[in-house]
Amino acid sequence: MPARPLSDETLHLIDAVRDGLAQRCGAAALEERTLFGCWAFFVQGKLCIGVKGEDLLVRLPPERHGEFQEMQNTRELSPGGGMQGYFWVEPHGYARSAQWAFWLDEAVAYNPRAKASPKRRPAGTAPAAAGATPRKATGSVRQKKPSALPTGPRRHSIFEADD
Q1: Where are the transmembrane segments (predicted)?
Q2: Which residue, among 112, 115, 91, has the nearest Cα to 103 in the 3D structure?
Q3: Which one of 21, 46, 112, 160 is most buried, counting C-beta atoms within 10 A?
Q4: Which pTM value belongs to this model?
């Protein structure tokens, strides 16, 4: 079954996440691919942030799970605590640029301590040879070349006006 096309709002949010992570980590550290039905961004090979519809999937420190659970406009990925540290953030939770920066900064700060996921391989292929260089996913979403990334903060229309 062919994949459903992504809405303009989702594509815009994906672009905003890509730009935000590239500014914080550098474009070379990013990898993008689909995971669990969402567009996932990996930093240094570890899941950092995902986009599904208009929601963000943010990977955060498990030891602060209770703190994030109490925040408005967030919900656990897996209610009942099965996936500590993974949260969906609804649009009202990242609508202001300060909120947006908070979620990206928290996810990026936790990333060096996060456990790396096993590398996936396409069905029907042999395991990669030792020392093989992982391939960067290009994705089908408006991929930008690293040289085309903005040098300063870029304002996306996903944000409400900051007063």
Answers
A1: none
A2: 91
A3: 21
A4: 0.72
